[in-house]
Every structure is written in C-alpha cells, then in structure tokens.
Specification:
The two termini are 32 Å apart. It is globular and about 70 Å long. Helix 1 crosses helix 3 and helix 6 packs antiparallel against helix 8. A hairpin with a 2-residue loop joins strand 14 and strand 15. It has one domain: Chorismate synthase AroC (Chorismate synthase, AroC fold), CATH 3.60.150.10. It has eight helices and 18 strands. By secondary structure, it is α+β, with helices and mostly antiparallel strands. Helix content is 25%, strand content 22%. The strands form six sheets. The protein has a five-stranded antiparallel sheet, covered by helices on one side.
Amino acid sequence: MSSIFGNMVKVSVFGESHGAAIGVMIDGLPAGEPVDLEAIHAFMERRAPGRNRQSTARREADQPEILSGLLNDRTCGAPLCAIIRNGDTRSQDYAAMANIPRPGHADYTAELKFHGWQNRAGGGHFSGRLTAPLTFAGAVCAQLLARRGVTVGAHLQAVGPVEDCRFDPVKVTAEQLQTVSAKAFPVIDEACAQPMCEVIEAARQAGDSVGGIIEGVAVGFPGGIGEPMFDGVENVLAKALFGIPSVKGVEFGAGFEAARMRGSQNNDPFTVGEDGRIVTVTNHHGGALGGISSGMPIVFRVAIKPTPSIAQMQQSVDLAKMEPAELHIQGRHDPCIAVRAVPVVEAVAACALLDMLLSDVP
C-alpha cells in the first residue's frame, strides 16, 4: 500500500480510522524553518469533525503531537513526524457490516486486494479520517510557501445545484484567499452559504448525502517550475489531490469548458504587466502550459462525491454467504464531505507545490 507522495518533500500518511492514532511523516523539509504551531491548530480546526450540523457528530480534538523534526519550534533537518490520537471511536457500529461491503466505499476492492486482512472499522486506512494528518502536513508546507511568497486558498464553489462565484483567475490576490479561508463557511459570496446549508440539511433529513466542488488557487507561484512530460504542475497536483478520499475529478483553468471553446477563445493573449512581467490577459490555462508554471495564478477545481455512508437502506452482498443482503449503515457521517474538505484541498496542494518549488532549486 503506497501512502507516500512527493519527490524532495515526501509526505507519508499512516494509521486507521479507529486505530490508536493516525499520523504523518514529512521528510525533506529545509532545516531552520520556523513552524507556528498555533497557526497549524487553527488551520486544522477548519477540518475537524463535530463542529457544526454540516459535519459528522464524531468529535475529535485533532491535536497533533510532534514526535520528531522540531527543535525550539524550528525544523531541525530530521523528518518531521506527528501523530493525532483517535478518541471518539465506535467500532461496534461496524461489527454487523464485517462481511457486507458498503456501496461507494473501498470495502469490496480492499477485500479483493488484501483478502480480509485489512482493518475494516470506520473504513480503516481508506477513511476520510486520514485527511487530518494530511491537513497537518499541508499547514506546515503552507507556512514555508508563504515565506517564499506563495499563498494557497480554496472555497466551496458548489454544493449540489447551488453555486458560489469563482475567484478571478487573473486578479485574485493572497488577501482574498486568506479572507475566504478565515470564514466559518468557506464561500466568496456569503449569500450562497444559507442555500448551501439548506441543501445539505435536506439531504441529512432524508438520510442521504450531497457532493460538491472546491475551487483552489495558488498565487505567487513562480513561472518556470514543472517537469514535462509526467511531472508537470498539473500532473503532480492531480496525483496528490486524487489521494484525498472522495475526490472524483480534477480540472485546471477552464478545464472541461475548454472543450467547448474555439482556440481563439481559449488561448490567453500575452502582455506586459504593470510590474514589467509577462502576464496573460485571461487565464484559461490555469497557470501552467506544457506542464510548466507560467507565473499566473494556478487555478484548479476538485469534484467531491456525495458521502457514501448514508442512513437509507442499500443493496449489497454478504461475502460470507455469497448472497444478496440489505445494508443499513450505522455510525456518524458527514451529509456533505465537501465542506470540511476545503482546507484538505488547500493542504494537499500546499504539499505538492512546496515539493515542486524545492525540487526545482538548482
């Protein structure tokens, strides 16, 4: 099982949803970098469960314990390792489902690959719970990026049919990204928050769930970074983002909309900016051409599927008896994963971008 990504900065995630702890190892961070632990706690609080009606009732402190890699709140050159202890687990909720794979989950495919030896409780290593250590890693990487002039942010662009406006792909600023990240409900247009919450609540009341779209942006990322053909900016970001549970699609710039344009519409004209840099008038390319960063904002969107654990009766199969079985899932689950996934998307993007930036240093 490969749970490691990165070239220069390697991020390794470990643990299971209902195990004693989950954690992450970050290898390759430069020595002497200050790490603001209070800022990391604030970042992780945005992802933590049990904070509102839009998330699972599972309540976890999500306080990372640093085991190695920091000395006097600075990186010391050794791998930075942190664990997050699990507290509010209810493994008994999953006992009746031991032989019945949950639709939409990795239960059946894990059975095919690991032949019953996998930890099934709460989804084990496949659980969204593993995004907590990912968020820690990204919070650290985001601080290193900020000192290099790069800011990563995201917002909830859509929940079901309700859509927020998008960031301006040319003029978006670090301040705008930070403003949205500081909001309790991460949207640009606050008038969208209540309709989105109503869609989520309607799904919850129906014993169902709903998906969403997250738009992410990185500003200040220098041009000329990326290794074509297979380690380009989009390649590296997409690989990392698809590691987030429930991500089913990633697009950059105009994305799939570009397929409906003509070249004259999709091409971004070049010009000289006010600061003397070469910039593009539009940003349909999303900040990368030929896999190499152009210096424009890196713009991407992530599709998050509806939470597969729903309260409605579902059809499955009893693997022990090899016969059809009805399944009623117990436990506590988000009616919309996308809300708490916003900081996770920021975090994973920060890890990938820092890795590319440091890998490209001569």
